[in-house]
Design goal:
The complex is a heterodimer of chains A (258) and B (423). Chain A has helices spanning 2-14, 19-37, 45-80, 87-96, 108-140, 151-170, 180-220, 229-247. Chain A has 258 residues and is mostly helical. Chain B is α/β, with parallel strands linked by helices. Chain B has 3 domains: 45-155, Immunoglobulin-like; 164-183 and 379-419, no CATH class; 193-372, 3-Layer(aba) Sandwich (Rossmann fold). Chain B has helices at 2-31, 122-125, 167-189, 201-213, 229-248, 259-275, 294-308, 322-332, 347-353, 361-371, 374-406, 410-419; strands at residues 45-48, 56-62, 72-78, 86-92, 114-120, 135-143, 146-149, 153-155, 217-222, 252-256, 287-289, 312-318, 336-341, 356-359. In chain B, strand 9 (217-222), helix 5 (229-248) and strand 10 form a beta-alpha-beta unit. The longest helix of chain B has 33 residues, at 374-406. The radius of gyration of chain B is 36 Å and the shape is elongated. Classes of the chains: A mainly alpha (258), B alpha/beta (423). At the A-B interface, helix 3, helix 5, helix 6 and helix 7 of A face helix 3, helix 6, helix 7, helix 9 and helix 10 of B.
């Protein structure tokens, strides 16, 4: 008994966050970040290790999320309260799993049919409202305040309406785009490209902010507090690539698996 | 005696009549409001908010000559029989008329002659307790720090089955369904025309290249679920691509994010191999489940692409931030890449990294164009009809609204805006 108690105390103490654990965490975080970035140079065993770890960790995380956020609160707990109605969606969900047993895989059609019907019923009215009617009202409405609009605002409202018509025409598949139709369609493309350019810049800026976050963390982990994790890992990888290049010099990379 | 009695009665009647006639002016004086005071609201009524899910009450009373910005109205609500008043709203007396209720002209009489105030009960009593029980309401008029209570009105709110305010949505839906059935019938009898989609010509080129190089084709259906339109369109394109892959006797790999999409794609690919007369070439591992975590999926597919160096990669479906991660690795590996998504935020990345890109609805059209299925062709025709409706409505709508607003025809402008109200 004493041994068990000692073991339990040791185990609890083992997981207490200490500076040593923090340093180990920093090495792990810096290592995995640099391993994934190393793909920018070329595919290598470090990237593969990080890739597989990421895949496994991602799946493990999702499994526990599905269990604790879906299965337990939405199925198990209602059943414990004798709310039997929850059995209907549960059985429909379980029917999807019959795909794995060919003899009874037809049962999964009930689940799929319900999914499709539910999805269509939910999507069609909303799509109609947002894609059609809101599109029209959103374009037309600004001009209802024409009396108080400046000439520039009026021009802007008409330009938006013109753009909407031209872009929609580009996606009109029932007529061949020739002659004047082609011109309208081309104007639509220009509007689209202006939008895509703006969206590209916006998204790239957002991605850069993510990159800064990683660099900031790598910088933090390069301090003496974390035993120069970033520097050691980078130097280690550079040495690996140099040695690898030296030994495979003149030789070809192994052919990709088919 | 009788004469005396008669005389007494006559005197009494006359005295009473004199008193009554004398009292009338004095009662009238009593009813008159003192200078600076405002009479309390007398015709306050309760109504359930029409065409809603319940929980919203409407209080109505007539607009009065005394309504001006100096006078304030306060709305009180209580769930108890006596007391328990909660202040729900406060506003100047010259605001909040029937015109401010956001319902279209066919579902609501937007009168400016009465005050109409919405009280959303879930804000004060929670969602579960507001539809069914009776609530009490009163309106307090405030002027110069003096308050005058109205009478108390009671009522309960109810959920409505039919939303008359969305009648325009219903009519459009019915029209579109009618057009769809017409299109299906027409497509089966005579066929329907769809213009050539440039990006699709590259599919044969990409598959031919893969066959010549003896390298696999990757088909990435994105991270969307099976209910997504782009994913559904992607499965149709996958069907056509895998049919050609089977005909050319090359290899295809389909890495999946969603297990349900994978199940559907398995059936699609199997069917395509069968239709191509090559059921023996079909393998179950053509469709592989990777991960349902977005970036794990991207990292893994990147790894597969960089190791196997496929000759052609298709990115068709729903993509988010992983789009560039995937497309850039594919471009680096030297594959010919054809992409298509309806996620406009990701399209720029596909433009920069892929050889051909199907923009938005071109993805939907591609499935119909390739398969020539009457049902898909009809769906595309209905979409075209919808676009035509939007184009024509926008064109005439801006002209009518601009002219109406310029000439101050407010009711006319309101009617047009109501017609295009999504609600």
């Amino acid at each position: 008994m004493d041994l068990l108690t000692h073991f339990w105390t040791w185990l609890c103490g083992f997981f207490v966050i200490t500076p040593a654990w923090m340093t180990a965490g920093a090495w792990l975080a810096a290592g995995l970040t640099i391993f994934l970035f190393s793909f920018l140079y070329k595919d290598n065993p470090f990237f593969k290790a990080a890739e597989h770890l990421y895949l496994g960790a991602g799946m493990g995380w999702l499994l526990q999320v599905s269990f604790y956020s879906v299965l337990v609160p939405k199925v198990w707990e209602p059943l414990m309260k004798h709310e039997w109605l929850v059995l209907v969606p549960s059985l429909l969900g379980l029917s999807l799993l019959t795909q794995f047993i060919p003899k009874i895989s037809w049962i999964s059609r009930y689940g799929f049919t319900f999914l499709m019907g539910y999805g269509a019923g939910l999507a069609i009215p909303v799509g109609l409202s947002t894609d059609f009617i809101s599109q029209i009202s959103g374009t037309v409405q600004p001009l209802s305040m024409m009396a108080s609009m400046t000439p520039w605002m009026i021009f802007n409202a008409f330009l938006v309406a013109f753009g909407v018509i031209c872009v929609l025409f580009y996606f009109f598949f029932s007529v061949e785009h020739k002659g004047h139709m082609q011109k309208v369609s081309n104007i639509g493309i220009y509007f689209l490209m202006i939008y895509f350019g703006a969206a590209f810049g916006n998204t790239v800026m957002a991605r850069f902010s993510l990159l800064y976050g990683r660099f900031d963390q790598l910088y933090t982990f390069s301090s003496s507090k974390y035993l120069y994790a970033t520097q050691f890992i980078v130097i280690g990888m550079v040495v690996y690539f140099a040695i690898h290049a030296f030994f495979t010099r003149g030789g070809k990379e192994p052919e990709a698996a088919r | 005696m009788i004469k005396n009695q008669f005389g007494f009665v006559l005197f009494s009647v006359l005295f009473a009549a004199i008193n009554v006639s004398a009292a009338k002016p004095s009662q009238a004086v009593k009813k008159q409001t003192p200078a600076g005071a405002i009479p309390p609201i007398e015709n306050l009524t309760f109504a359930d908010m029409p065409y809603d899910v319940g929980g919203t009450a409407l209080l109505k009373w007539d607009v009065r000559p005394t309504d001006n910005p100096d006078v304030m109205y306060q709305i009180y609500v209580s769930s108890l029989e006596t007391g328990g008043w909660i202040k729900a709203d406060e506003f100047p007396a010259d605001t909040r008329t029937g015109k401010d209720i956001e319902l279209p002209f066919w579902a609501w009489n937007a009168s400016v002659k009465e005050h109409v105030v919405k009280v959303e009960l879930p804000n004060y009593f929670g969602e579960a307790r507001t539809t069914g029980p009776v609530f009490n309401f009163k309106v307090v008029t405030i002027k110069d720090k003096k308050s005058f209570d109205s009478g108390i009105v009671s009522g309960k709110t109810a959920s409505n089955w039919f939303r008359l305010d969305r009648l325009n949505n219903l009519l459009l839906l019915v029209t579109i369904i009618t057009v769809f059935f017409w299109a299906v019938s027409h497509a089966k009898r005579k066929g329907l025309f769809i213009r050539r989609i440039a990006g699709l010509d590259a599919i044969d080129e990409a598959l031919g290249r893969a066959t010549e190089m003896g390298k696999p084709v990757y088909y990435v259906p994105g991270i969307g679920g099976m209910s997504g339109i782009s994913t559904i369109a992607s499965t149709f394109i996958l069907g056509e691509v895998s049919k050609k892959v089977a005909q050319y006797d090359t290899q295809i790999k389909v890495p999946h994010y969603d297990p349900i999409v994978m199940t559907v794609c398995k059936e699609v690919v199997k069917q395509s191999f069968l239709e191509a007369g090559r059921p023996d070439s079909y393998r179950d591992d053509i469709n592989q489940f990777i991960s349902q975590d977005q970036f794990s999926y991207a990292a893994s597919v990147d790894g597969m692409i960089s190791r196997e160096k496929p000759a052609a990669i298709f990115f068709m479906g729903y993509f988010m931030a992983e789009s560039l991660l995937l497309a850039e690795v594919g471009a680096t590996s030297g594959a010919i890449q054809i992409a298509g998504t309806d996620q406009e935020s990701q399209l720029p990345f596909f433009f920069t990294a892929c050889d051909y890109t199907l923009i938005g609805e071109e993805l939907y059209a591609a499935g119909a164009y390739l398969s020539k299925e009457p049902m898909l062709m009809s769906a595309l025709k209905v979409q075209d009809f919808g676009k035509l409706v939007v184009m024509v409505s926008v064109f005439f709508g801006i002209i009518l609204v601009a002219v109406g607003a310029r000439l101050h025809w407010d009711p006319f402008v309101q009617v047009i805006l109501n017609l295009f109200g999504a609600y």
